[in-house]
Amino acid sequence: MLRWRRDVRHFDRRAVAEADMCALLACASLAPSVGNAQPWRFVRVRTPDIREALAAHADGQSAHAAERYTGQARYDHYLSLKLHGLREAPELIAVFCDEHPEAGHGLGIATMPEMLRYSCVLAIHNLWLAARLRGLGLGWVSIVDPPAVHALLDVPATWSLIALLCIGYPADTSDTPELEQRGWQQREPWADRVFER
């Protein structure tokens, strides 16, 4: 399951049952959180105009990001990648962190307030694994400008964007992430990421 837990950008158009969506959100909410603050806030994007605005925004941000690549080969390679499934995925969820939740009473964040955001990432990971168990795929769209998404979704000022997620049935399955398949970046040995002191 963990090997197949990869970023999905190609979805078929089958709807996700509402019961499955509720189960995914319930599983996400079982994640551990600092001080039991449960700072995650899930916004389901159901309005077609907002969905299209998010997709157009991501397209624009992607085009802008392409300018970072100075070599023609890397630039062309970047432009050939599919970086989101915002138009195809049957479900979109924006995950925000409430930076001042009432729950938790501030426990554990006096010196590391970023723990609230890390707690939200754990909730996303729970959701991701629960989706996989149901045969669903998830794509995390990071090519967005958080203030723009914040404005499009009209959420409270105290919420910070953590993720824009595409959820649905994958168009295909593979144990190999798409960026590896497409030659962008191979997975490196896990032991190279472990250090001792």
Automatic annotation (TrEMBL):
Residue stretches making up the Nitroreductase domain: 2-169
Gene Ontology MF, one: oxidoreductase activity
Originating organism: Sphingobium indicum BiD32
Record-given protein name: Cobalamin biosynthesis protein BluB @ 5,6-dimethylbenzimidazole synthase, flavin destructase family
Entry-linked InterPro entries: BluB, Nitroreductase, Nitroreductase-like, Nitroreductase/BluB
